[in-house]
Amino acid sequence: MKDLLRTADLSRADVELLLATAADFAKDPLRADTALSNRTVAIYMTKPSTRTRLASETAVAHLGGTPIFIRGDDLQLGRGETISDTAKIISQFASALIVRTHKQSDVDELGSASSIPVINALTDDDHPTQLLADWLTIRETFGSDIAGRKFSYFGDGNNMSHAWLIMGAIMGAHVVAATPEGAWAPDEGVVKVAREIARDSGATIEIVHDPRAAAQGASVLYTDVWMSMGDPESQRVEKTRVLAPFSVNEELMNLATKDGIFMHCLPAHRGEEVTAEVIDGPRSVIWREALHRRTTIQALLFHLINGDIKGRG
Length: 313
Prior knowledge:
The chain is α/β, with parallel strands linked by helices. Helices cover 42% and strands 14% of the residues. The strands form two sheets. The chain has a five-stranded parallel sheet with strand order 7-6-5-8-9. A four-stranded parallel sheet has the order 2-1-3-4, sandwiched between helices.
């Protein structure tokens, strides 16, 4: 597999390989510091970023390469050059391309037209690099045996909920998305794909609308911001009202297992999708989770460039 364009592209074996390598990079960030010697990696972002930019540039540097950061208005795309032409040009200068943008179709086209690995570092539909970081954090906390554990997401049925369901299905986990019904529920097509993967992996996929039921006996309570980049401001009042019952607070955390943890992909809005006492409390693992954005992107670059990722097929 040349690229990582969608979470669903990965097989369980791919994920296990990436998590093992990322765990090694967490212990020794410079263990493969010549893998990208004298090579560059383009990092193209049309959405602002803290973690993704820092993680991507640091990952490239730790592999011995040079990151080239490109804003959305830095390229000739803004003046009408095609995505295909842009991909072919970047392929002549860089060894890989990391992309954070709105449209999944743009990332798909970049992957199709590029001769180098393309990594989806976030679109409006998916967020595979975040889920690798999440599952490395889960693996560090609970080990590889997740039998009997439940992993629950709360809030907007957005790109994070999509990636959460798909990765959980790949990993054979019991994953839950607790969202409102209607406009802010997960995409039905994504849920269908997750359930198709689950039939082979033994995973359990649940979509529920009761946050207490989702929290009961869960090992992870996970959430994301309610207003994502690009969401119409006109939706804020109604969306906040509908999502309010899904805010992760102490009441929900108390329904989790005794060793249950809180996770968030960040940035966070305390007092909205999570209370300060939860996100800043002893059961929160958000800072370790954020660190693993670097270790997992480093592992992705290492293995994609070496041709080690086989894909789900």
